[in-house]
Amino acid sequence: MNEISIPRPNNLDAYWMPFSNNRAFKQNPMMLARAKGMFYYTPEGREVIDGTAGLWCCNAGHGRTEITEAIQKQAAVMDYAPTFNMGHPIAFEAAARVAEMTPDGMDRVFFTNSGSESDDTALKIALAYQKAKGQSSRVRLIGRERGYHGVGFGGMSVGGIGGNRRQFGGQLPYVDHLPHTHGLKENFFAKGMPEHGAFLADKLEDLVALHGADTIAAVMVEPVSGSTGVLVPPVGYLKRLREICTKHGILLIFDEVITGFSRIGAPFGCERLEVIPDMITMAKGLTNAAVPMGAVAVMNEVYDTVVNNSPAGIELFHGYTYSGHPLAAAAAIASVDIHQKEDLAGRVRDIEPYWEQAAHSLKDAPNVVDIRNFGLIAGIELSSRPGAPGARAMDILRSCFDDGLLVRVTGDIIALSPPLIIEKPHVDRIFNTLGDALRKAA
C-alpha cells in the first residue's frame, strides 16, 4: 500500500482552527495523519478507532478505494466547469443518483458545498417559494432551541445554540424558536425514541397564534439533533409538526446533514421516522467527506412553483462557484453506489440492538446522568464539575484519544457516531475504552 509520509508539523501558529480551543490544542496537540476503514493513525503510527465517523461524515468508513478512484478519474478528465447557465454531465448524474435515495416526489436537487450552505439555501428556497405563491408576507422562519443548522447567518439565526450566536451580534430578523425536547425526566435513559414529549410540537400552534400563519414561511428542525448532544425526537413529535405545517401552509425542512445517508437505518432519517418533509438538507455522508459537498432536495411541487411562476430568465438568484463541482459529483456518485450495494442502512438496523445495549451498559458509570441512542448514534450525558462546565467531557476526550479512541464532546455530553461498517468487536472496543475513561475522570 502506498502511503504518504506526513511529518508532525513544527509550526502550529498559522492555522486558526475552527470550533477549537486553539491555545489548549497547541499546548498538547492531538494529530491524525492517515485513515483506513474504522481507524485513524497518528503521525507516530498509533491506531485510533474512529467513534465519530470523522465528524459524523465518513459513513462508509475511511479510504474507500471506489471513491478515491472516482475522484482521480474525474480530475484527469475535467477538474472544474461552471454551472451558472452552463452544465456538465456528471453534476446531472449525481443529482439523479441522490434523487434515487430521497422520498418519492422529492426529485429536484440543488448542490452546495457544506451543510451550512445547504441550510441557508433551503431557507432561501422557502422564502422564494412563498413569494412565488403570492404569499410575500410569509417571511418568518422557525427553528428550535438547541438546534444546529450550520454557521451561515441564516442557519445560525434559525439554530438555537447560544454559544454559536453570542459573539456575532444581531441575527436575521423574523425568526422564532420552538422549545427543545431535551430533559424530560420520564425520558431519561430511553432506548430509541422516548415516549414522552410529543405535546411540545403543539408549541408551533402558539407561534402561529402569536405571529399569524400568513407570516411563517418554514420550520427547520433536525430529525435527530446531533451537534447539541444527540436529542432523539419523542414518539409522535415529528408527525405532529408535519400536521401543523400542512394545516397552515408552512414548509417543513428536515436538516439531515447528520441523519442522512443511512446513519439511522434508512437512506434518509425521514423514512425511518415516517415523516416526509418538503425539503431535506444534506452534506457529510453525501461524498463520505472525501470532497466537500452539500445538497438540498425539494419536493417537485416546490421546484415547479419557484421555476414556473418566475419571469423569464433566472428563477432563483442563488448559487455557489462550486455548486455541482465535478470532483464532488464523482465522489457523490461513488458514495451512493456504496450505500446501495452494501446496504449500509440495513447494516445499521442489524447492529443497532447491539450498539444500544453497549451504550446503555454505561448507565452506572461515574457521573453518567443520561444515555440516548438511535440508529448508530449515542449520547452519554455527564454531570458537570462545579464551576467548570464541559471540563469533565474534555478530559474524557483526551483520555480516550490517548487510549486509542476518537469521541466527540459537546458541553458535558459524549457523542458517538461511528462509520456504518462497524462490527461487534469495534463496538466492544469503543464502549470498553469509554468506560475506562469515565472511571478515570471520576
Automatic annotation (TrEMBL):
Alphabetical GO biological process terms: biotin biosynthetic process
Query: Which cofactors?
Result: pyridoxal 5'-phosphate
GO MF terms held by the record: adenosylmethionine-8-amino-7-oxononanoate transaminase activity; pyridoxal phosphate binding
InterPro entries from the UniProt entry: Aminotrans_3, Aminotrans_3_PPA_site, PyrdxlP-dep_Trfase, PyrdxlP-dep_Trfase_major, PyrdxlP-dep_Trfase_small
Identify the stretch annotated as signal peptide in this record. Answer: none
- Keyword vocabulary terms for this entry: Aminotransferase, Pyridoxal phosphate, Transferase
PANTHER family xrefs: ADENOSYLMETHIONINE-8-AMINO-7-OXONONANOATE AMINOTRANSFERASE (PTHR42684), BETA-ALANINE--PYRUVATE AMINOTRANSFERASE (PTHR42684:SF1)
Record-stated family: Belongs to the class-III pyridoxal-phosphate-dependent aminotransferase family.
| Name recorded for this polypeptide | Aspartate aminotransferase family protein
